[in-house]
Amino acid sequence: DQQVKQNSPSLSVQEGRISILNCDYTNSMFDYFLWYKKYPAEGPTFLISISSIKDKNEDGRFTVFLNKSAKHLSLHIVPSQPGDSAVYFCAASHSNSGYALNFGKGTSLLVTP
Amino acid sequence: NAGVTQTPKFQVLKTGQSMTLQCAQDMNHEYMSWYRQDPGMGLRLIHYSVGAGITDQGEVPNGYNVSRSTTEDFPLRLLSAAPSQTSVYFCASREGYGYTFGSGTRLTVV
Question: Count of H helices and E strands in chain B?
Answer without folding.
Answer: 0, 11
